[in-house]
Specification:
This protein is α/β, with parallel strands linked by helices. It has 6 helices and 9 strands.
């Protein structure tokens, strides 16, 4: 199964082309360059858009605009190519790339998206309940490194790849492929425009 996967919820967008578990190509860039990345991945993998079997897309939480770019792209491609789509939590993708780590995404407005007690939530970084020695990954962990380390957490170096929600993990986590319009964003808070 040739799967195109991408996530645009954070400041760094990731995309991957995966064929039956084998990563044919992977790219990191900005969300606004997603379609260029898709084209480059298909060329790199020796495939055409019509060869795709399905799409896995990151549904957030993260930047409202970034999440919308990813979902709109997935829906457009799915409609044009008649492909099923599955949504994957960006937090789950981060966790898949760093097993046993706490995924922390910068939610802006002095808040982070994280998982506590098995549930995704939006909180101030100081409110995160962390075990001593917990490893925190993601752009929120990088931004609030000092505060998290004061709480006894460990944060890998800024350039560590565990801070990215790699699209290859979306393919592993995706299930329930179906109509693109059934894939819903995971915002965790009201967008600024609705306030």
């Amino acid at each position: 199964m040739l799967t195109l996967a991408f996530d645009t919820a954070t400041d760094v967008a990731t995309a991957a082309l995966v064929d039956d578990g084998e990563v044919l190509g992977e790219r990191t860039t900005r969300a606004v360059r997603l379609l260029e990345d898709v084209d480059a991945l298909l060329r790199q993998g020796g495939a055409r858009a019509r060869d795709l079997d399905r799409i896995a897309v990151g549904v957030g939480p993260g930047s409202f605009t970034g999440v919308r770019i990813g979902l709109a792209t997935a829906r457009g491609l799915a409609l044009a190519l008649d492909l099923p789509v599955a949504g994957v939590s960006t937090l789950d993708a981060l966790a898949a790339g760093a097993p046993d780590a706490v995924p922390v995404i910068d939610a802006k407005r002095r808040e982070v998206f994280a998982v506590m007690g098995g549930e995704p939530l939006c909180v101030a970084p100081a409110e995160l309940e962390l075990e001593p020695g917990a490893v925190c990954v993601g752009d929120g962990a990088v931004r609030y490194r000092g505060l998290l380390e004061e709480k006894g957490a460990e944060v890998p170096p800024d350039g560590d790849e565990r801070h990215l929600p790699r699209a290859r993990f979306h393919v592993q986590l995706a299930s329930g492929y179906g109509p693109a319009e059934a894939v819903e964003p995971l915002y965790l808070r009201v967008p600024d425009a609705d306030r």
